């Protein structure tokens, strides 16, 4: 597993983004400034294809608070959970390419076509990347009633009773991270999938699912309330938001270095000028003092790179994720 994890650090710093591939650049038509002169002309919808209360939902709603006044339009957040984000993303894939409907997805977006037999849209043609709004490490958490208080203790407990315990995920990205952990430590654990981070946390607190892999944003309130025990963060360095929580590498799992991305996409034929207009607005909000403080408080940091840079990032990550999923033998539900 050592060799399987090492490319993570070398190729990406493991900021596993979500999006379409290089074909999107060719698919977006040549546009002019005239196309953005009157944009937006109506309320903007941002679909969150996961449950309310999760990390993606929290970031999306905070972003909407800043975008509304900036764009002088109502920003509507709609939660459409299900099928690892596919149900909500499909709404955007089939929407009008007029720059008024977007989706906020996490890193599972590129993994879905690798493990889902029948996709209702083409991930690489029907969606166009706008930008990564923010990156954040993931965290392993277990119920405060579970005896293990560190990742080393937790791994020992897993080995003592194989096939007894489970790891929960809210989409294929966190499922992949859970599988990487089980694979690296040669553990026989059951994978349990949820429609969002909030219901996952509910079951982890109750002990229904032994450990959950999620964003720090999603788990933080329950950790602060003493109902969840944080075991380790997935990034190479400790997070300033939870400085006392060690990394997976500190727990002895070498080269384990992964962060989650929260990224925005539009319908695949949306004019490039509109993608760029939204990216600029997102960049302004993401790097505002209020948003930066909110993200830092939740263990995330702003990115909001230009559209072309985002597409370049996607080329690398699409190839990397495909290779990693095969090596980990990630299976769909």
UniProtKB/TrEMBL annotation:
Signal peptide interval: 1-34
Claim: Signal is one of the keywords in the record: yes
Gene3D superfamilies assigned to the protein according to its UniProt record, in alphabetical order: Bordetella uptake gene, domain 1 (3.40.190.150), Periplasmic binding protein-like II (3.40.190.10)
Record key words, sorted: Signal
Superkingdom as given in the UniProt entry: Bacteria
Keyword Signal belongs to the record: yes
Family: Belongs to the UPF0065 (bug) family.
Stated name of the protein: Tripartite tricarboxylate transporter substrate binding protein
Organism: Zwartia hollandica
Lineage, top ranks: Bacteria, Pseudomonadati, Pseudomonadota, Betaproteobacteria, Burkholderiales
